[in-house]
UniProtKB/TrEMBL annotation:
<feature type="domain" description="DUF1468">
    <location>
        <begin position="21"/>
        <end position="157"/>
    </location>
</feature>
<dbReference type="InterPro" id="IPR009936">
    <property type="entry name" value="DUF1468"/>
</dbReference>
<feature type="transmembrane region" description="Helical">
    <location>
        <begin position="91"/>
        <end position="124"/>
    </location>
</feature>
<keyword id="KW-0812">Transmembrane</keyword>
<feature type="transmembrane region" description="Helical">
    <location>
        <begin position="15"/>
        <end position="37"/>
    </location>
</feature>
<keyword id="KW-1133">Transmembrane helix</keyword>
<feature type="transmembrane region" description="Helical">
    <location>
        <begin position="49"/>
        <end position="70"/>
    </location>
</feature>
<keyword id="KW-0472">Membrane</keyword>
<dbReference type="Pfam" id="PF07331">
    <property type="entry name" value="TctB"/>
</dbReference>
<feature type="transmembrane region" description="Helical">
    <location>
        <begin position="136"/>
        <end position="156"/>
    </location>
</feature>
<protein>
    <recommendedName>
        <fullName>DUF1468 domain-containing protein</fullName>
    </recommendedName>
</protein>
């Protein structure tokens, strides 16, 4: 039997991590939905719960799907391999990028800091190191800024450049 014909055995650590992440997403979904329902009603066409409520539902659906998938894969999961080299440093790098995002957001604005966060996370997770990472990060941040700031009217920090 050729290597590509053999079923891939799933690592037990990966399955358990998937289940834990699914559980965290479900908990976050409950918090987001409860907070969205508690927001005051307004006469506006798009109320304050228009975004958080569907986001909470989406978090719950993804979390439940991850839990179901982990439950399905757990019986066939193998011992797996050791943790990746420098995995702890990557996690610390991601935390540092997130803290940097929070600290620099009021100074540099949403688009610049969100682009930097996307690039840092992508590079820490072994994305190809070329110009496309920066282009995708900027495009994603710009679209989110336009949707929230311009279309919905939720003001995001603009920074010194106006975006």
């Amino acid at each position: 039997m050729a290597d590509e014909d053999r079923p891939v055995q799933v690592d037990r650590h990966t399955v358990l991590a998937t289940a834990a992440f699914g559980g965290l997403l479900l908990a976050a979904a409950v918090l987001v939905i409860v907070d969205a329902v508690r927001l005051p009603a307004t006469s506006a066409v798009v109320g304050p719960a228009a975004v958080p409520l569907p986001v909470g539902v989406a978090l719950g659906v993804v979390g439940a799907l991850l839990l179901v998938d982990a439950r399905r894969q757990l019986p066939g999961a193998g011992a797996g391999t050791a943790w990746q080299a420098r995995a702890g440093l990557r996690v610390l790098g991601l935390v540092a990028a997130l803290v940097g995002f929070a600290l620099l957001l009021p100074l540099l604005g949403y688009v610049v800091t969100a682009t930097a966060l996307f690039v840092a996370a992508a590079l820490l997770l072994d994305a190809p190191r070329d110009w496309r990472v920066l282009a995708w990060g900027w495009a994603l941040a710009a679209v989110v800024f336009l949707v929230f700031d311009r279309l919905i009217g939720l003001m995001l920090p603009a920074g010194p450049w106006g975006f």
